[in-house]
Amino acid sequence: MSDYLPGLEGVPATKSNISDIDGEKGILAYRGYAIEDLAEHSSFEETTLLLLDGRLPTSRTLAVFDDQLRTNRRIKFNIREMMRNMPGSGHPMEMLQTAVASLGMFYPGNECLTGSDLCEDLNYVHNMSVKIIARMATLVAMWEHIRNGYDPVEPRIDLTYAENFLHMLTNKEPDPMLARILDVCLILHAEHTINASTFAALVAGSTLASPYGVVAAAVGTLSGPLHGGANERVVDMLKEIGRPEKVKAWLDQKLKNKELIWGMGHREYKVKDPRAPILEKLVHKLAEHRGGKTSPLFETALALEEAARDHLAEKGVYPNVDYYSGILYSEMGFPTDQFTSIFAVARSAGWLAHWREQLADNRIFRPTQVYVGEPLRPYVVIEER
Ligand code: COA
Question: Which residue stretches of the chain have pLDDT < 70?
Fold first, then answer.
């Protein structure tokens, strides 16, 4: 039997051609295209299709896909009613996991999964992916209104994915600059090799569970603070520090207590996460758009990054994607507890690309374990214990 490696560190769990990380050089590429190029030139719609199909689409293919996403934004009113009956105090990720799973009851269709052709029909896989990706943003934005006691805002088909999300979340005409910033954020969060939530999606997918169950499993896994939930913690942490001049004393104390600095460190990257500098530039861009003033939160973040470098760089611990996405989302006015849900909206593209890849060459995941319990022993009846 091979050695047991806690956290499966370094253990390949699948073969994939969707994305690749070079953790020493700080490179992330989707289907061979550097994340910097996609952030500069692509849109979330195009990147999603690239992830799903494996190639950059033509204008025509992209227009068809974009149209499919737009026309699948609405959800049945019984889902809204279900959401209305959930406690407004609940965490948006728990709502999202429940709502995504419920889509399977309202938009069924996993007959192909249990039929003899085992999903060789790519149309089926594509259409199910569209149904989910299109509705992820709808569910997250709807919840913001429902949990505050209002009716949700209806989706619009004349807007891009990012614009529509902003419109539904804020009930305002989307600001084009904010929409482009969000679009880039969605691109940057859309995929990241086989991380914990993608692995959860693969395991669920390998059982031929429905794609709604696959994405619900992934949403639940993403919610933890060691994974997607870290961006929320970053903002809480920066608020706790308060001002740049308080960083040093705060950091010394945390490191002395061997506590984690949220938004720093990554299993794969031993240099700065390549998504972090792109997001950092977006924070600057947003500040310029608003007259050049940076917030105390951002200034504290910059000071903390610099101070942490002296202590953590030798361990290969640098800011990750959650560090600057937390700050950016906060500056964009999104509620802190929605940050991870927005991450999930984007990551649904990657999860479903991996689902498709898993189905194309499926074998159920069934690892083994190292049993460290009692050897076989006689049962003792209750009177004699
Ligand atoms: N703050 C302080 N120290 C950190 C750290 C952080 N955020 N991340 C890692 N380290 C330290 C560890 O304490 C360990 O130090 P040691 O060798 O002295 O014991 C060393 O760096 C290696 O860390 P390790 O826990 O083995 O790394 P990992 O690959 O198991 O964990 C993470 C990776 C992401 C889980 C971890 O860095 C972390 O918890 N980060 C904060 C949460 C976060 O931002 N998650 C989002 C990831 S995108």
Answer: 1, 110-121
What is the separation of C-alpha 368 from the centre of its chain, rounded to a whole number of angstroms?
Answer: 28
What is the layout of strands, in order, in the sheet containing 27-30?
19-22, 27-30, 33-34
Residue 360 CB contacts under 8 Å (≥ 6 apart), including other chains: none
Q: 30 — phi, psi (to 5°)?
A: -100, 125
Q: Given this model, what pLDDT does residue 230 score?
A: 86
CATH of domain 15-363: 1.10.580.10
CA distance 226 to 263: 9
CA angle, 66 then 190 then 52, to 5°: 55
Cross-strand partners of 34:
29
Amino acid letter at 49?
Answer: L
The whole-angstrom separation of Cα 65 and Cα 70 is 9
pLDDT of residue 111: 62
CA dist., res. 184 & res. 282, Å (int): 9
- 273 CA closest ligand 1 atom index: 48
Beta strands in the chain (DSSP E): 19-22, 27-30, 33-34
Question: What pLDDT shows up at residue 229?
Answer: 84
* Ligand 1 geometric centre to CA of 33 (Å): 28
d(C-alpha 243, C-alpha 252), whole Å: 15
Ligand 1 pocket member 261 (CB < 6 A): yes
Alpha helix locations (H) across 43-121? 44-53, 59-71, 77-84, 92-106, 111-114
Tell me the torsion sign for CA atoms 80, 81, 82, 85. positive
Which atom of ligand 1 is least distant from the CA of 7? 30
Q: What is the dihedral sign for C-alpha 185, 187, 190, 194?
A: negative
Identify the pLDDT of residue 294: 80
Ligand 1 atom closest to 321 (CA):
48
- Separation of CA 79 and ligand 1 centre (Å): 39
Determine if ligand 1 sits within 6 Å of the CB of residue 8. Answer: no
Distance CA 297, CA 302 (A): 9
Nearest Cα to Cα of residue 246 among 305, 300, 302: 300
According to the model, what pLDDT value does residue 119 have? 53
